[in-house]
Amino acid sequence: EEDLLQDVCREIVVKWSEAQNAGVREKKEDEIQAIASMIEKQAQIVVKPKKVSQDEELRKAALLAQYANVTDEELFTGADEQDGATAAALTIGSEKSLFRNTNVEDVVNARKLERDSLRDESQKKKEQDKLQREKDKLAKQERKDKEKKRTQKGERKR
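User: That's the sequence. What structure does it adopt?
Assistant: Structure tokens below.
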């Protein structure tokens, strides 16, 4: 009886294992089939080459040539004499390129304008402060004079 029971248990375990393995095999086959169909779809997709005009090709070639031939020494030269600091100024000749990069020049000019405006504002503030000090001095002197007159009147009345 026990032998029969053990045989039945073994048979159940064997059938269960086979069922599990069959499910895993089916999943793997489904995944492989899905990957194969995706690859087939990608193979069917054909990318049409973009038609580029000859003018655009020439522009592209000129840009590539410009950046390939220009060295760092040609790009950045120049100095700011007022501050004594070096500033970058772009010096690419028109014969080398179709376009001119003016970013560096724009930044340098903007900083220079900002410094000039700050300098002017500072000068105006100094002048205003000087005028205000003179006004305060005059007002103080007038107060002293009025106080003197009042005290003199008071002394005369006594």
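The helical segments are 2-44, 54-69, 72-75, 103-157.
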